[in-house]
Amino acid sequence: MSYTLKYLFTAEFADGTSYRQTPDDTPRIADHGSSFTDLSSRVADIVSFSLSSVADAAQVLSVDLRDGSFTINGLRFPAQTPHGIPFQLVYFRQVTRSLVSGSSEESIHVSYHIGWRTAVTGCIYQQTVSVE
Q1: pLDDT over 90 (residue 49)
Q2: pTM
Q3: What is residue 38's predicted lDDT score, i.e. its pLDDT?
Q4: In a 10 Å sphere around its CB, with 0-12 CB exposed, 13-18 middle and 19+ buried, how is residue 7 labelled?
Q5: How far is CA 66 from the centre of its chain?
Q6: Smallest Cα–Cα separation from 71: which of 23, 20, 31, 115?
Q7: How far apart are CA 101 and CA 83, in angstroms?
Q8: What average pLDDT does this structure show over 106-119?
């Protein structure tokens, strides 16, 4: 990875345990991959997933997979879906690399996305929030 993470994730599981991403994004359980690789066998057990700013601890985005709600810097936004439906975690980083014309310099822009995906009467719905 050729950039510094601005946000680190924390996954909270149904059994009350949690997992926090390492600043260098290396796994603590798996032999290779990223910190998220460590979650691969327990994704279905995640009840809450948060992104916390490295620079400002008060800047936190989270999604509650029990009810689909989002919390952004302490403000809760409820999901507009029927109650009792299962939510699956959506998490990804979008990395855009741009070369500066006439030089060997590269600019890197990273956005972080969290949210959920679900199916209601055969239709797939997805809601995400992002931060840069």
Answers
A1: yes
A2: 0.90
A3: 92
A4: buried
A5: 16
A6: 115
A7: 52
A8: 93
